[in-house]
Design brief:
Layout (H helix, E strand, L loop, with lengths): L2 E4 L3 E3 L10 E3 L3 E4 L7 H12 L7 H16 L15 H15 L5 H20 L14 E7 L10 E7 L19 H11 L4 H13 L3 H5 L3 H8 L5 E4 L13 E4 L2 H11 L2 H7 L18 H19 L8 H17 L4 H11 L4 H22 L1
Antiparallel strand pairs: 1-4, 2-3, 5-6, 7-8
Length: 385
């Protein structure tokens, strides 16, 4: 199986520029085949993204290309060999036999399959541009085509559609209601969730409360900084600012303010001062609040493992399915907090405020929650009759 190792920062000496010094470059996720062979084109592409384009988040790129090259190895395919018949080409086989098959089985989301396919296409486009791959009409990774897209922006009645260039490898995401993707915990689920959560270690409890009470994403809660806990100890502020300036791994490196309730503030400050945290660090220092048993920063893997155990505990307690992920805690916060703001007569201001707290880049994302609440209220009225 293809594997990935994070390389250290390195220096290069440009041969084309006389008397120039070394250039320092960032380390990159480095790809190897199962026989430990260095995968040159992929690693050059990743280096291009990190050190030329200055990409901040490579997680989906790495997952997509690792999945693709695993598929190639499992099926004894070459990344740069394209038979005349389309259905035999590795890119089409990956889309049809791997991504679409697993999406239809529910193993991955169609949106994830679409994202992975786009990353593969970008990789090939760069290889062709850099002349690492020679293509011709009878053997190429994909074909381009023009696609008509419905315009959902302002003044769309004047221009209902627009044309974009795409490839014939695109994965169509099934249409669904705008609110269907939201899956907040119901009121009946919150109590058994809280009961099960209370049996876990304090680090996991704090992480989950940062998500469900403040709307932090998984990685944001993992990287919540120690300095903010100290700031909260000597302040009665209900909001704190998070972002790269204090070490929080926010999406796209954006800065925003988030709510911290009085009870959560007390918990954060208490843990920051606790003997338990000090012992876990083993005389080392950490700029992050949450630390694991080994003294390392709390990681998404720590969270996902604990959440699986929590999900099982809730299902045993309730004898029913608890079909939630950690990301649903963020949706839970937004749903109930938005409802409380709407109840006191706010609407446009409530959406603007929630958009800021959640860090949504588009107002339409926050309005989905308004639609969700309105639909829920309508269903409750219908059930009352």
């Amino acid at each position: 199986m293809t594997y990935v190792i994070q390389s250290n920062p390195f220096s290069v000496l440009p041969l084309s520029v006389p008397n120039s010094g070394h250039i320092k470059l960032e380390g990159i996720p480095t790809f190897y085949y199962s026989n430990h062979e260095y995968i040159t084109p992929v690693n050059l592409w990743i280096n291009h993204l990190v050190n030329y384009r200055k990409a901040k988040d490579l997680n989906s790129t790495v997952r997509a290309l690792k999945r693709y090259f695993n598929f190639l190895e499992e099926n004894s395919l070459s990344w740069d060999k394209f038979p005349t018949a389309k259905y035999l080409r590795p890119t089409y086989r990956f889309r049809n036999d791997n991504l679409l098959t697993n999406a239809r089985l529910g193993q991955i989301q169609f949106s994830t399959a679409s994202l992975y396919m786009r990353h593969v296409v970008k990789f090939y486009e760069w290889c062709i541009h850099q002349k690492f791959l020679n293509v011709n009409e009878s053997g190429k990774p994909f074909d381009y085509e023009m696609v008509k897209i419905r315009n959902t922006r302002m003044m769309n009645h004047l221009n209902p559609h627009y044309i974009v260039s795409s490839t014939d490898l695109r994965v169509k995401v099934p249409l669904k209601e705008r609110v269907q993707s939201l899956n907040p915990l119901s009121k009946n689920e919150l109590e058994p969730f809280a009961k099960a959560l209370s049996t876990f270690n304090i680090e996991f409890i704090i992480h989950q409360l940062l998500q469900v009470q403040s709307g932090l994403r998984l990685q944001e809660a993992c990287t919540f900084p120690l300095c903010l806990a100290w700031e909260l100890e000597f302040s009665d502020k209900s909001e704190v600012k998070i972002g790269p300036m204090n070490g929080v791994a926010t999406k796209y490196g954006k800065e925003r303010k988030v709510e911290i309730s009085p009870s959560l503030r007390a918990l954060l400050v208490g843990y920051a001062k606790s003997k338990r945290r000090r012992l876990r660090l083993k005389k080392n220092n950490s700029s992050f609040l949450l630390v694991s048993k080994s003294g390392a920063p709390f990681s998404p893997n720590n969270v996902q493992q604990s959440f699986r155990r929590l999900r099982n505990a809730v299902e045993r307690e309730t004898s029913s399915l608890f079909s939630h992920t950690t990301h649903d805690l963020r949706a839970t916060y937004c749903t109930y907090r938005l409802a409380s703001l709407l109840e006191i007569g706010m609407q446009k201001d409530a959406v603007t405020q929630m958009m800021a707290w959640m860090g949504h880049s588009s107002e339409a994302t926050t309005w989905k929650y308004v639609d969700f609440l309105e639909r829920k209220k309508t269903l409750e009225k219908q059930q009352a009759f």
